[in-house]
Amino acid sequence: APEQPQNLSCIQKGEQGTVACTWERGRDTHLYTEYTLQLSGPKNLTWQKQCKDTYCDYLDFGINLTPESPESNFTAKVTAVNSLGSSSSLPSTFTFLDIVRPLPPWDIRIKFQKASVSRCTLYWRDEGLVLLNRLRYRPSNSRLWNMVNVTKAKGRHDLLDLKPFTEYEFQISSKLHLYKGSWSDWSESLRAQTPEEEPTGMLDVWYMKMHIDYSRQQISLFWKNLSVSEARGKILHYQVTLQELTGGKAMTQNITGHTSWTTVIPRTGNWAVAVSAANSKGSSLPTRINIMNLCEAGLLAPRQVSANSEGMDNILVTWQPPRKDPSAVQEYVVEWRELHPGGDTQVPLNWLRSPPYNVSALISENIKSYICYEIRVYALSGDQGGCSSILGNSKHKAPLSGPHINAITEEKGSILISWNSIPVQEQMGCLLHYRIYWKERDSNSQPQLCEIPYRVSQNSHPINSLQPRVTYVLWMTALTAAGESSHGNEREFCLQGEDTAALGQAPDRLAHA
């Protein structure tokens, strides 16, 4: 005989749907089996459906239960029959409310009154008998849902905790009864972006001063973008106000899309700036700073500044508090930019702020391997500042080339060697030293050398140990902490003595590495 069918369960999808039942057939007897599904209702009503498929485990009665008597009981039973006998499932008894699973809500939409994220209403349509809804929503870039259960919502609900200028995904599910029945499937997703609100938070502003001449100085202001949660919309422009405090004269400049601003002001007077960010709804609170000489107070200069590589594209900067009472320090600012021998002011500036109890900072933003960075640590106290600087890199190797000697001149029995800097992309980190080599032409003896510390601005050096009327070959190399470069170009020079000058114009010879 066939095994007894198990776990009979029935469902009607939607108020206008039909009753369908499923069951588990049990072990296969390998005999032809017929299944009969029977439904009994009030007033001795009976429906029956047959399935002549041995592997049958689903039948749809094709009838619709209506809500006239939502508490009326219905009983379903399935019977399996083969040539050896029959077996019936346990009866499954249910009401209309037990088995009707509502269709998912549809026509979902959202409205923001007065374009405000704080006055947001979600609307949808449901089947008529729905009593409960559950709503779930999340920012489109999040995996976590916010869940809300509502009763008798009648197709609308106010949401109060949405963030401005954020795309959300919304879904809704429905149920007919508090305890009975099952939830509908989730609706199709609605995606909508919330309106902007005026920015919150304040810009992080930093600046550089550069001497132009006896009466003028250049001020370059820099600021960081607000975070998405602070901007609360698309930033349309930044407003910069520059003011001379004693005279009260103000100059305002609107900037679109840029996060820096440069102007020229007199070297006299006390100057202050205020910078704010604006979107379509308003402006952030302005960040106000007084322009001062950031390195003027020597007693505030941080001590023993060091910069060491810390993994891939990170540099750990450490320092000791200044000699002046360390408690006077209100904050440290660590600033870094790519080192360019010409002092290019267009090179992007990076900085971070550190509380006064910190004596180290890990810098990682815009750090590239094999690039040397000029790093400054500022200690700020009221309207005073002190600074110390150091060069650092996250990764280094020996330079790819040596300096190019461009001229050798004689001056009172010694010579002055001038050279061109190694291109930045060939330095491969921070240069520590230059070496100048020389030996007599056609000599097999070891060359003599002079090692000089690297300075950004230096491009010449005297040598006074050459013998008159002897032709020498000279060349240069550069060193990082990882090693020495190959030779630069060779130049020949013969020191004539004090009466004559030879300008070292023998043709260049390529050196052998």
Explain the overall architecture:
With 513 residues, this protein is an all-beta fold. It folds into five domains: 6-100, Immunoglobulins (Immunoglobulin-like); 103-193, Immunoglobulins (Immunoglobulin-like, Sandwich), CATH 2.60.40; 205-290, Immunoglobulin-like (Sandwich), CATH 2.60.40.10; 298-392, Immunoglobulin-like (Sandwich), CATH 2.60.40.10; 404-494, Sandwich (Immunoglobulin-like), CATH 2.60.40.10. The longest helix has 4 residues, at 96-99. The strands form ten sheets. Strands 3, 4, 6, 7 and 8 form a five-stranded antiparallel beta sheet that branches. Strands 19, 20, 22, 23 and 24 form a five-stranded antiparallel beta sheet that branches. Strands 34, 35, 37, 38 and 39 form a five-stranded antiparallel beta sheet that branches. It is elongated. It has three helices and 39 strands. The model is unreliable at 499-513 (pLDDT under 50). It is a single-pass type I membrane protein.
Topology of this structure?
Elements lengths: L5 E8 L5 E6 L9 E7 L5 E6 L6 E3 L12 E10 L2 E4 L3 E4 H4 E2 L4 E7 L7 E6 L6 E8 L6 E6 L4 E4 L7 E9 L14 E4 L11 E7 L4 E8 L4 H4 L5 E8 L5 E6 L4 E7 L4 E9 L2 E2 L3 E4 L12 E7 L5 E6 L10 E8 L11 E5 L5 E4 L9 E9 L2 E9 L11 E8 L2 E7 L3 H4 L5 E8 L7 E6 L6 E4 L7 E10 L2 E2 L6 E4 L19
Parallel strand pairs: 1-9
Antiparallel strand pairs: 1-2, 2-5, 3-4, 3-6, 6-7, 6-8, 10-11, 11-14, 12-13, 12-15, 15-16, 17-18, 18-21, 19-20, 19-22, 22-23, 22-24, 25-26, 26-29, 27-28, 27-30, 30-31, 32-33, 33-36, 34-35, 34-37, 37-38, 37-39
Membrane topology: Single-pass type I membrane protein
InterPro entries: FN3_dom (IPR003961), FN3_sf (IPR036116), Hematopoietin_rcpt_Gp130_CS (IPR003529), Ig-like_fold (IPR013783), Type1_Cytokine_Rcpt_Type2 (IPR052672)
Subcellular location: Membrane
